[in-house]
Amino acid sequence: MTNFMLFPSLMREMLPTDYVGFTFFVGCMAMMAASAFFFLSLNQFDKKWRTSVLVSGLITFIAAVHYFYMKEYWAEFSKSPTFFRYVDWILTVPLMCVEFYLILKVAGAKQGLLWKMIFLSLVMLVTGYFGEAVDPTNAWIWGLVSGIAYFVIVYEIWLGEASKLAAAAGGNVLAAHKILCWFVLVGWAIYPLGYMLGTDGWYTSILGKGSVDVAYNIADAINKIGFGLVIYSLAVKSQKD
Prior knowledge:
- The chain has 241 residues and is mainly alpha-helical.
- The chain has one domain (15-240): Rhopdopsin 7-helix transmembrane proteins.
- 80% of the residues lie in helices and 0% in strands.
- It contains eleven helices and no strands.
- The termini are far apart.
- 38% of the residues are buried.
- Residues 1-11 have low confidence and may be disordered.
């Protein structure tokens, strides 16, 4: 593993028929292109919105780096790069929660909301990793804890404090908040589904088992880039108002 980490260029070439590997490659390129777009657009915004757009660029840049390594790992071992994927998520998902806080600051969001969202996202991801990679014999228990954290996040942004702050802000902020909420409810739903398909539990007899790397890769690109584009659009509209 050490040689792999230090010398990724020594990995074998990806085969043209490797469609899973192709989605890793496309994911890497898409994330990098999005990062360039967000970073190069920073100067058009004032300080109030520059941070939000910067965070969007950081999310896609971190993902692009991890997707490069995930592509290389897949090309060499033809196995799902669970470790790299969770390292990516544990960095980018809390940053996506930060985005909610940043756009809601105009409505008086406190740092307590920020830390609550970050804590819930970390619980969701750490327990998910334990279920997939550390203690797979109890995957359903770890998955249950992870799922509870996910649904608390969903509740918080749809019906909780974040929702109330968005309603108070109104206008473009409320519209952007609603779109981000749909990303979390629908876009993030692929992750618990993928968890159940990749682990053993009471749900296996219902869903079966299978590889979900293609779905993960597509969902990651849509969720991370889409999140950033919503923030970018909000920043542009707010600058004009």
